[in-house]
Amino acid sequence: MTLRTSREEVYPPAWAEAVLRVLVAPRNRDTITGDLLEEYREVIVPARSRFGARTWYVRQVVGFVRVDGLIRAVRGGPREDAMFDRLADKSMFWLVAGGFAFMALLGALIRSSFGPPAGLGVFVVLSAILGVSAAISKWSRADIQRLWRIVLVCGILMALVLVVRLLVEVFDPVDPVDRFLARARDDYSEFNYPRRWVPAAAVALIMIGGGLRAAWRTARVGMGTIAALAASVVGSLAYVTFVALGNTLPLGPQDPLGNSPRDLQFFGNIPSMLIPVLAMFGTVLGTIGALFGRALSAVKNSPAHG
Amino acid sequence: MAEVLGAFEQAVLLSLIRPVTDLGKEAYGRGILTEVRHRLGREVSAGAVYATLDRLEQKGLISSKLEAGNAVRAGRPRRCYAIAAEGVRALNDAKAASERLYAGLRWPLRNTS
Prior knowledge:
Number of helices of chain A: 11
Number of strands of chain A: 0
Oligomer: heterodimer
Largest interface: A-B, 32 and 31 residues
Radius of gyration of chain B: 16 Å
Helix content of chain B: 40-55%
Radius of gyration of chain A: 24 Å
């Protein structure tokens, strides 16, 4: 037996509607929620899956979160040229958000002496939230056309950095015992070993730059996140492919750390775990770059882009 | 001279003065949103349109009145908007300002540097 639900019985998520009622002025609560309910029932639900329709509604609610009003209230009264004030406010908001995120990351790196940040679990959760929210944001063919070149360039640059680092390790290896003893010292800092932190910094800058460029071009933070995430996957995949192909060359077995036991391949094991790890950091760093890119685009674009 | 209108404010006002979509002719929030999307040729956030309508109403460029809702809206009322004489004047001013800005230029523009 099929149970049919009439149009008038379909409702959007109650929590999202409650949030919307809080976000809008009291005089518009019924009219705006009514408008959205009408669109939801007449257009969205018939055309999309249940999940897709609910996601659409949540996205509409997010669109009602206005930051410019808050900032203007903090900064003082009305100005002569309202349009350019709005642009400046939005630009300042994104700049402050990007600066805050960047400083938080830098603080975490300094606390861990430029090693892996202490709260790795936080990074996993943060990157998952950022990645999913960017992935379910609005996409268009034009966005993909704008992004693919940025993804390709950043991915190739990332792979090049990783390949150069690997080649240095292979052809000028560091004694693993020396490295182990150095790390055991109290005053150990990655910052004292440029061979380690320079490639890491270069990859981080590429991720931030990719996010910045993509958000600048599309005027959307989510697109910056997606571009950096995709570039990280492309770069790490290219690097893993390089390692796998290198291992097939008849160069004889060699351990990257200097030993040469027969069971090791030329470039060592294939670093497949690098793909999710870089994707995770790419998502977070790309979003930081995207906040700066969004600030730049706010200066360039009309208020409607906000 | 009235306050300078932003491009988005102009799009909202124009959608009230000469709507081209069926829904836009009904001149309530959802219809205006559809009309603005059609006019600008891109996706527009509902929040941005409602915020602009509020702002324009506060400036006295448009007026609104409530109409009864139907079953699809769960009986919630519709707020219908109409452009005020001040809104028409603001649009005329915006058009004149834009024409002054571009006056004397030959089209299409070329990079002379």
